[in-house]
Structure to design on (495 residues):
């Protein structure tokens, strides 16, 4: 990981579970990145993304409301162009296929280890 | 005149041809027709008998044999009629007619009560319809069972999903708690807990992507687990090699084994390389006796078994976990350590899930 390059990057965390979102935020902060906010649904995620223009979005698949993580990611991708790393509890093919409708910068399965998160973010930022 | 004479002695009787005034046309007409009828009546019962023999499943085949007998008898009476054109053997002819009469009346009498039973036998079309009905019913049952199975898979995936999500929440809690703590030992302990929870989560990830949702190959799991510990803890400084035989395992086997690998690799990482670099090897193989042998080894500084490295007077949590899980798996552990080589060997019985796969090669090995 290139710590200097990562220093000022901002990350948006999208997950409808408070404990999961909070844990991810702290992990991100421990990597010397700043968290610009957390969102629990697709609309909120897009609004925050447009406001803060984060480099990276950590995106849960199941969100509150009608739209899922892929809907949110496609919208953010189109409006802001942030790199989206999906973090999903589901490792089944249908979910993975759905995620690949977007062009994910990374795909992680819960529970996510520090190392996996670190590497996925580093890869996304390098691209 | 005796009975026998009355019946068999033709003396005084005239042949039938005489009644026809020996008119050649009439004689030929009778003789010819009777010959053809007689031969046909010999052939027809043979065909019926052959048919019944070929189809032993046919019900009421005794009726067919009754037909065979009475048609044969009829045929014989026609052949006798030819004989009596020239020879007045009316007694024998009469006897044959008597036999024919008996067989005919028996057939006629038995046929009537049989009629409703034969009529009740299902026709080919009826049987075809019943087969179709049954087939449709079976197809429906199969569809229902498929749907039930799909439903089961869906529920299982949902459960695994939730388990994984909950583990992520537990991890979040631990991350949050770590923030509140400044004591380095306490922080390390929380770090250790997070690694163990990740090992549990990784098992559920494998389960979720397996086709039967019950078993998965342990080799890629061990590889992913070990590299996560090593790369997460030491980056590139420590090199790791993982070799494992392909082995289908379930939750009950994978969780203790995964946690054991987690503890042993973490131990090596924490204590073996105070100067940074080194090698860690994880190997899962099958012994000649069919047991599974897990080896975790490092080329670090080693330690004296009397004073386990890095441990205080209390037994460390890692050691308790290792002893407990080995006991749970009904296995044995052997540890040797010296400068440059620390090696833990755990032997456990192969899980039942792998028994069908393992049976064939195992039998071969034993025989050899």
């Amino acid at each position: 990981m290139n710590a200097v390059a990562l220093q000022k990057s901002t990350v948006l965390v999208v997950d409808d579970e408070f404990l999961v979102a909070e844990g991810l935020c702290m992990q991100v902060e421990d990597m010397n990145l700043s968290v610009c906010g957390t969102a629990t649904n697709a609309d909120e995620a897009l609004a925050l993304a447009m406001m803060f223009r984060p480099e990276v979005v950590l995106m849960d698949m199941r969100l509150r409301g009608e739209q899922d993580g892929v809907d949110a990611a496609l919208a953010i991708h189109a409006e802001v162009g942030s790199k989206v790393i999906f973090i999903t509890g589901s490792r089944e093919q249908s979910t993975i296929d759905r995620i690949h409708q977007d062009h994910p910068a990374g795909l992680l399965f819960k529970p996510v280890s520090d190392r996996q998160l670190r590497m996925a973010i580093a890869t996304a930022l390098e691209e | 005149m005796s009975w026998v004479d009355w019946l068999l002695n033709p003396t005084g009787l005239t042949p039938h041809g005489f009644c026809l005034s020996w008119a050649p046309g009439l004689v030929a007409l009778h003789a010819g027709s009777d010959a053809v009828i007689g031969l046909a009546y010999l052939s027809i019962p043979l065909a019926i008998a052959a048919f019944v023999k070929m189809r032993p499943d046919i019900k009421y085949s005794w009726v067919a044999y009754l037909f065979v007998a009475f048609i044969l008898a009829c045929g014989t009476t026609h052949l006798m009629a030819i004989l009596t054109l020239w020879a007045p053997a009316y007694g024998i002819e009469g006897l044959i007619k008597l036999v024919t009469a008996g067989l005919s009346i028996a057939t006629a009498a038995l046929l009537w009560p049989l009629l409703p039973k034969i009529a009740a036998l299902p026709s080919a079309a009826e049987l075809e319809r019943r087969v179709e009905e049954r087939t449709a019913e079976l197809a429906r049952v199969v569809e229902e069972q498929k749907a039930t199975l799909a439903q089961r898979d869906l529920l299982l995936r949902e459960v695994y999903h939730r388990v994984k999500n909950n583990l992520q929440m537990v991890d979040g809690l631990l991350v949050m708690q770590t923030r509140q703590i400044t004591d380095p030992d306490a922080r390390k302990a929380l770090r250790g807990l997070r690694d163990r929870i990740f090992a549990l989560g990784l098992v559920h990830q494998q389960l979720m992507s397996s086709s039967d949702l019950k078993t998965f190959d342990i080799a890629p799991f061990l590889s992913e687990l070990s590299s996560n510990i090593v790369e997460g803890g030491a980056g590139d400084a420590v090199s790791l090699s993982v070799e494992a035989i392909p082995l289908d395992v379930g939750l009950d086997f994978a969780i203790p084994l995964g946690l054991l690998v987690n503890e042993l690799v973490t131990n090596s990482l924490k204590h073996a390389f105070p100067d940074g670099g080194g090698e860690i090897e994880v190997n899962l193989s099958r012994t000649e006796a069919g047991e599974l042998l897990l080896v975790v080894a490092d080329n670090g500084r080693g330690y004296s078994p009397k004073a386990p490295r890095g441990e205080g007077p209390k037994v460390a949590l890692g050691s308790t976990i290792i002893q407990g899980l080995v006991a749970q798996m009904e296995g044995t552990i052997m540890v040797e350590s010296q400068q440059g080589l620390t090696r833990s060997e755990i032997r456990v019985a192969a899980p039942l899930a792998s028994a069908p796969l393992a049976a064939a090669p195992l039998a071969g090995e034993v025989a050899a």
Observations:
- The interface with chain B takes residues 17, 19-24, 26-27, 89-93, 109-116 of chain A (CB under 8 Å).
- Helices of chain A lie at 3-6, 18-30, 42-52, 69-79, 93-99, 114-126.
- Residues 1-6 of chain A have pLDDT under 50 and may be disordered.
